Amino acid sequence: MRQKEQLLLKLKNQNEQLNDYAHLVSHDLKSSLRSLSALLTWVKEDCAEKIGEESVCNLNLMEEKIEKMDKFLEDIINYSEIGGTSLKTNTIDINVKVNKIINSIDIPKNIKVVIKGKLPVLKADARRLRQVFQNLISNAVNFNDKEVGLVEVAVKENEDFYTFSIKDNGQGIPKEYHEKIFNTFTTLGYHEKSTGMGLSIVKRVLDLYGGDIWLESEVLKGTTFYFTLPKNKANEV
Amino acid sequence: MRKSLNILLVEDDMIEIMKFNRTILKLAYPHNIIEAKNGEEALDILYKNESLPDIILLDLNMPKINGIEFLSIIRKSNQLKYIPTVILTSSNDHKDVSECHQLGIAGYLVKPLKFADYSESIKTVLDYWCFNEFVQA
């Protein structure tokens, strides 16, 4: 028993160290990227005529890579933070929250995001819950390939838990990827800006709350992501 | 009335300093910049100089005395605690944000990736402080 406790403590410490490490390294790399990006901009500003069109093109490509790397680091920081800091308990009106998210993300004119029915008010960590909805909704928007895109957010209340759903009419996800997509750095490559971290972040947050996530999908027709949030003393209002 | 500012920039990274100066150069209104490479150097400047800066722009990640240590020192000093201090950092770490706000800051800027966005946010901050009255030391 004693040994078990010690082992647990050791693992806990190591885990914390690892999180700190990921955090520190990512921040250092982020600052370096800021420097690189500024220097690149200046070279373009100062010497565009001297170096010619092709080189400017290459510099632009470099800039895009830097942007993507920055996004990566941001996601790694986000991922490593989950579980590292203790969860807060905020009272959240999910209707308000989801509307806020819809207004904050870039949604092309041909895609509509709607809330079906009334979403509940519950207690959870507002930042973490935002990550869940934001990542699922922006995936549904970004990967949508239809002329008229539709994303629907809904909820079903059960006795012990809520089941939320985010349904899209996008390109669908083949069965063989249904589990894989929750792994870190796994992307199906439909969108050049995706880092493959979004769904891992979602899953990690839900794990903390004892929630589940799964999907139903038909290739070419669309996908519905479902996730559950258990009702308990912690999140009942 | 708009005035030109005495700004103490506490920043250890050479390219960050270049970014700042390049931004200032493009402004129509000149400001006076004093540079310090870390918290220690900044404190030296503050203790030695008879005229204090109007505002301090402070990086958090620095060798020797880091940004948060520096901030807590000046907030405890009767002479220096009035100087508005704006944090300039690449980290939006929640612990840092809340620690800084607790100590008392005049702003918390997370440096954007693109230089154009960075310039824009620096310009906005300085445009605001240009119109302020300061406690003259």
Explain how this protein is built.
The complex is a heterodimer of chains A (237) and B (137). Chain A has 237 residues and is α+β, with helices and mostly antiparallel strands. Chain A is 51% helix and 19% strand. Chain A has 4 helices and 7 strands. Chain A has helices at residues 2-81, 94-104, 126-142, 198-209; strands at 90-93, 111-115, 121-124, 149-157, 161-168, 213-218, 222-230. A 5-stranded mixed beta sheet of chain A has the order 2-4-5-7-6, covered by helices on one side. In chain A, strand 4 (149-157) and strand 5 (161-168) form a beta hairpin. Chain A is globular, with a radius of gyration of 21 Å. The two termini of chain A are 38 Å apart. With 137 residues, chain B is α/β, with parallel strands linked by helices. Chain B has one domain (6-129): 3-Layer(aba) Sandwich (Rossmann fold), CATH 3.40.50.2300. In chain B, 42% of the residues lie in helices and 17% in strands. Chain B has 5 helices and 5 strands; from the N terminus they run βαβαβαβαβα. Chain B has a 5-stranded parallel beta sheet. In chain B, helix 4 links the parallel strand 4 (85-89) and strand 5 (107-110). In chain B, helix 2 (39-48) packs parallel to helix 3 (67-76). Chain B is globular. The interface between A and B is medium-sized, with 18 and 18 residues.
